[in-house]
């Protein structure tokens, strides 16, 4: 029982404080309410048209109303450009002189939108809008000035050269002078960077470069920094020769500037222009500067350390051709030093340094190590992947075990790039893959999982000498790491990470054995479907489970999983589980052949027409067209009759209006559908080929299982012969499995036909000349192969399709040798078709 409420003095004061907090929250709400007088002032005559209303609000309205008119300017320009330019725009120009910051920012955005909408010609725009933009460039508020500058830079792209010269370039000469304000000179720097790409090199040299040199030597460090960052754009406009003679000397001088921000801008511009310099310039000018930056970064100029670490990969590879072996080694050691920056103090060598280290320094060191992780693939190229284990593995280990999450996150993102670069040496980073999979941060796991299938595939194919299927068995703790990662993602609130991980785990059949998937992953997927509360996670688990079932090689395991799906999902007590069963059936139809679905899931799906929950019946109705598309006539005639019977019952017995509406709509859609015959039809040719390929691969997996059983039975008797035959067939089946993708959503028409389909292709060519239906009418009565493994039923394929189902004459013999058991139990039609094919 709950304790009685205590009305003591202390609790009473607590209640009073809570009430006071509520009144404080309520005050802003009361202030926002308008009085009748204020509402009267905000009221506008409804009979005014848009232009008149805009003029009225700009003249007599409040600031918020005027701002709304300015924001609506692009709409007015589209509706009535002539009247807007003649009456509204002059009024806006007048109001902007005394407008506040909000209206100024809104006007800058609206003017840019008018330009992008192309409501008027560029000539009209420059005549009407350009002067207003230029007038507001030097606004006292820096944010407003930058907003108008961004609009002007976008306008410059569209303006003709003559307009730019007269309206922008000529006034720029006076605005860039030292006598002008700081804001005016900063704006001039950015405009010149934009103009350099609009004029020819000789015009830039004659009219812009003198201003550039003047601003590079400005007394204010902000102006020198701004101009330095524009030198990259100016260099692109004037070409390589002028850059070497004009821009490079300015950069060298700015790199020795007294202002740290100027030196930083010079360094970054130098790195970005590296491709424009020849080897002599790099060796004689750039390399000494870079060495100077590196030496000073640890001593007197730590401000450049973060930028240096970010650009180091680009810098090392850009200067690779001019490095001596000694310089190459020195820069590599410098990179290694940056990778462990800030970690040495943890060893306790210098307690005073640890005490003096500020929070800002710690953040800076974390950023440096993060940038080193970002540049790690570039450094592998720098040292050559062959030397990775000797030169960089220890650093790779340190970065993957870094105490800070941003560093490990960056390593997880770049792990795939590292694996690609190492190629055959990818086995050296297997332990770090397991480490990152077990990382305590879900952000790191999420970054790694993005390319997990590709990484595992590289792990498989990386070793040239490994020929076994279970190539990842040599990686210790891989499977426990994968299961632990999934459990940690499931226990967190980040369901998107969990969904992503389950989707990527669909690659595991290509990586590890079928038994390992069955015992460690498959049942876990079923548990997620049954217990998880997040729909996208449940669907991801359902699809991955279907993929695992698709590549499972043991009949007993397949039957067990199918039975659990039907009993625990399709016949589950919770309607939510029955909905997930229908989702799972969609994935079954996508991944498996039509015959597989019809044999195991067709009737359990139809049973849900009697479900007591309307939502289940609605979802089933939406699924019925797909269900019908899996049927083939005459083989599945009895299933078609069952489907029609269920539809009739729904039409006659359904009481829910919503369900009945959807049933009627579904009936019309089903009536318009054509059912494919056992024989190939021109309308369904591509789908039939795709289904035939799925069915063939299902048979190949069954043959693999049969061969394994035969090998176990015949151990000791002619072992060498059996081993050779088994290995030959296993390689063929594995090769066929690799050709098939886990997801087959793409149209088969975009793919080239496999050579084994040549017989089918010939049939299609014949049929086009003699009538497709008549020439292929016998295909539905063709060869019906059966297996002692009862998990798959072969569809009638036709004699011309036999080559697609059999790998060799020995495989055909092996099929025929163990199909007698099924023949006794099948229906008359199936037995007749088998006799005809035999």
Automatic annotation (TrEMBL):
Gene Ontology terms: cellular component: cytosol; protein serine/threonine phosphatase complex
SUPFAM superfamilies attached to this UniProt entry: ARM repeat
Region Disordered, annotated ranges: 815-838
HEAT repeats: 208-246, 247-285
Annotated localization: Cytoplasm
Principal localisation: cytoplasm
UniProt KW Cytoplasm keyword: yes
Keywords on record: Coiled coil, Cytoplasm, Phosphoprotein, Repeat
Coiled coil feature spans: 687-724
GO terms, molecular function: protein phosphatase regulator activity
Superkingdom to which the source organism belongs: Eukaryota
Oligomeric form and interacting partners: Serine/threonine-protein phosphatase 4 (PP4) occurs in different assemblies of the catalytic and one or more regulatory subunits. Component of the PP4 complex PPP4C-PPP4R4.
Record function comment: Putative regulatory subunit of serine/threonine-protein phosphatase 4.
Protein known as: Serine/threonine-protein phosphatase 4 regulatory subunit 4
Lineage, highest ranks first: Eukaryota, Metazoa, Chordata, Craniata, Vertebrata
